[in-house]
Write a sequence for this structure.
C-alpha cells in the first residue's frame, strides 16, 4: 500500500478525534451558581427556581445548592463554585457577618457575587446586595395589626432566628408602629426560629398563660401558620394573626379569613433582578446600579389577596394602591 493510500485510509478514523479537539476549543456555557438556605422551604425554593429559570432563558448553565444556614457548608459550596469556574454567584447567605469572608473569597476568585434576600455587613465586596425592604414592610404590617386591634389589647410576637438580620429588622419595623399605641401591650415574645412546629409549641404555651390574648404577629408566614394551628387547637374563636413573606399557604388562609394579613416579600422579583444584573455585567462590564438595592414589600389583606401569587405580584397595581 502506498504512503498516500495509507494516509487516506487512516483519515476517516482521525476525523472524529479532530472534530472533538475543535469542540474543546469552544468556550463552554458560563455557569451561574445559585446558593440558598434551603430547597425545602417554599420561599427559598421560589427564589432558587426564579433565578435558575431566568438564567437558563438567557443561555447560562445553572447549578442550585443549599447551605442550610450553616456557614461551614456555605464555605464548601463556594469552594466548589470557584473550582467549577462559575462566572456568577447568586447567594442568599448564611449570616450577615459569617458570610463576609466567603463572599470576599469568591470575589477574589473572579466570581461576581449578587446577594439576594439577606445582606452582609460589608460593602464593596459583592457586586450587588438586592434585598426586600424588611424594615418598611414590617412597619406596614405593624400598623395594620394595630389598626385591626383598634390600638388596644394584648398581643404576642413570634420572632425568627435571632442571628438572622431579617428577623432583627422585622422586629424593629413592627415596633416602629406598635409602640405608638400605649394601650397595645406585648405580653409575650419568643423566637420560633422560622419554624411552624416551634411556633405551634410556643403559641400553645403563650395561650395557656394569657387567656385574654387578642393577637399574634409573626416574623414569617411559617410561624404565623403554626400559631394559627395552635389557636384552632385551643378553640379560640377570635384572634388576629399576621405573618410576613406572602407564601401560598398564607394567601389561602387570608382568603379563608383565618389569617388577617401578610407582607409580600418579592422573592421572585429579587432573584430575577439579580440574574438580569449579572447578565448586564457580563455583557457590558457594569450593572449601572448601586451595590445596595432595596425592593419594596407590599401589604396583603383579604381586599387585595387575589392580586398576588407565591412570593410575587401577579396582577398590576390598581389605581390608588
Amino acid at each position: 500500500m502506498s504512503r498516500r493510500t495509507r494516509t487516506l485510509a487512516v483519515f476517516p478514523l482521525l476525523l472524529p478525534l479532530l472534530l472533538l479537539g475543535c469542540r474543546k476549543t469552544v468556550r463552554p456555557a458560563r455557569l451561574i451558581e445559585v446558593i440558598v438556605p434551603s430547597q425545602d422551604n417554599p420561599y427559598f425554593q421560589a427564589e432558587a427556581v426564579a433565578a435558575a429559570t431566568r438564567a437558563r432563558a438567557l443561555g447560562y448553565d445553572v447549578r442550585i445548592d443549599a447551605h442550610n444556614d450553616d456557614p461551614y457548608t456555605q464555605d464548601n459550596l463556594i469552594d466548589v463554585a470557584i473550582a467549577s469556574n462559575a462566572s456568577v454567584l447568586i447567594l442568599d447567605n448564611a449570616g450577615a457577618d459569617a458570610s463576609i469572608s466567603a463572599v470576599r473569597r469568591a470575589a477574589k476568585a473572579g466570581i461576581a457575587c449578587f446577594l439576594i434576600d439577606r445582606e452582609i455587613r460589608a460593602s464593596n465586596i459583592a457586586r450587588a446586595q438586592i434585598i426586600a425592604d424588611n424594615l418598611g414592610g414590617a412597619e406596614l404590617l405593624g400598623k395594620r395589626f394595630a389598626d385591626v386591634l383598634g390600638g388596644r389589647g394584648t398581643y404576642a410576637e413570634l420572632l425568627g432566628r435571632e442571628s438572622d438580620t431579617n428577623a432583627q429588622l422585622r422586629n424593629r419595623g413592627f415596633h416602629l408602629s406598635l409602640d405608638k399605641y400605649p394601650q397595645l401591650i406585648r405580653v409575650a415574645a419568643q423566637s420560633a426560629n422560622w419554624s411552624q412546629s416551634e411556633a405551634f409549641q410556643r403559641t400553645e404555651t403563650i395561650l395557656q398563660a394569657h387567656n385574654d390574648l387578642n393577637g399574634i404577629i409573626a416574623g414569617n408566614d411559617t410561624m404565623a401558620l403554626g400559631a394559627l394551628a395552635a389557636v384552632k387547637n385551643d378553640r379560640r374563636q377570635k384572634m388576629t394573626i399576621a405573618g410576613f413573606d406572602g407564601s401560598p399557604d398564607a394567601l389561602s388562609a387570608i382568603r379563608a379569613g383565618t389569617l388577617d394579613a401578610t407582607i409580600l416579600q418579592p422573592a421572585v422579583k429579587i432573584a430575577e433582578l439579580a440574574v438580569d444584573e449579572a447578565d448586564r455585567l457580563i455583557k457590558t462590564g457594569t450593572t449601572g446600579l448601586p451595590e445596595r438595592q432595596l425592593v419594596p414589600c407590599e401589604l396583603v389583606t383579604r381586599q387585595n389577596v387575589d392580586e398576588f401569587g407565591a412570593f410575587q405580584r401577579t396582577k398590576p397595581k390598581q389605581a390608588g394602591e
The chain is about 45% helix and 20% strand. The two ends are 87 Å apart (CA to CA).
